Amino acid sequence: MTHHLTDVEAAREVLREAFYTMDVEVLRPPSTWTARFAVGGCRTVTLGDLEFGVDVRVRAGELGAYHVNLPLTGAMAFHQGRDEPHRVRAGRAAGVFQPAGDTVVDSWDGDCRILAVKIGRTELETQLERMLDRPVRGPIDLGAELDISGGAGASWSRLVQVITADVSGPDGLTAHPVIGARMKEALVTGLLLATDHRYRGPLERQSPALAAPGAIRRVVEAMRAQPGRPFTVADLADIAGVGSRALQQSFARYVGMPPMTYLRQVRLSLVHDSLRVADPGATTVAQVAYRYGFTHLGRFAAAYRERYSVAPSETLRD
Q: Which of 98, 103, 248, 289 could cross-link with 294 by S-S, CB 3.0 to 4.6 Å?
């Protein structure tokens, strides 16, 4: 939802509902100004495209969540707790905040437009545990600045821009249960791989223990029992009782392909069998595809043709 506001109290209320309770102070009040806030997301991950249009100072206290301010234009200065002040600028760095510690944006320049990413503490730390295949004693203590000029930081920045544009617009794909869950997982995982923290080394070095064959069988049975369910890799890893990396490597060893590839093969087989016996006068290809978890008909049709050498409509018609 997008808001255009010319009142500080109204801006504070929008930010409170979407993010945190904030004290907003206009530093050099102009005669007129307009703030633009586009906000979306879910309970555990909230994203905003925020632009005050006037120089402000913001005090937010303890956030209780992990948070990133990614400047698209201009610059902002901030500090948290007793840490030294930081100043981040568009194209160079993003500001990263921890769940604990009084949070102050000392100056948010009027020409500074940011993408704000709020990630629930449990969401981030649970995902790290899945990636490490072991418990995590939080908080994670992410580095206060994320380099977005290149490398993983720049890649994560581009991902944030795509997802924020989707969640803040009407009829975004992130509202879909399958695509939204995967986008959220990618966003959280990407931040853990892009920022500095004490688990970064183990995350890059660790080779997780493989899941037992029985655990892989449980995952396969779950896929076959509910082929239309919007599984993510994290969901399947929870069923196996291992981390996401361990699940990926275990499937590669025991099944010969990644888990999501195997799930797609299961779904294609079920669609094929259903189309062969369906009445073309009472059934459509789209109905059958959606029933088994395919949400993008173009990609589904391409995958079906690649496997069966015919279009799904031909199978239904014949």
A: 289
The class that CATH gives domain 2-194 is: mainly beta
Q: Do 2-194 and 207-256 share a fold?
A: no
Kindly state the tokens that stand for 244.
Answer: 């996401």
Under 8 Å between Cβ of 80 and 144:
yes
Q: Give the model confidence (pLDDT) of 41-71 as tens digits.
A: 888 999 999 999 999 999 999 999 999 999 9
In words, the CATH class of domain 207-256 is: mainly alpha
In CATH terms, the fold of domain 262-317 is Arc Repressor Mutant, subunit A (1.10.10)
What are the sequence ranges of the domains in the chain?
Answer: 2-194, 207-256, 262-317
**Predicted TM-score (pTM) of this structure:** 0.70
Whether residue 78 contacts residue 89, with contact meaning beta carbons closer than 8 Å, is answered with: no
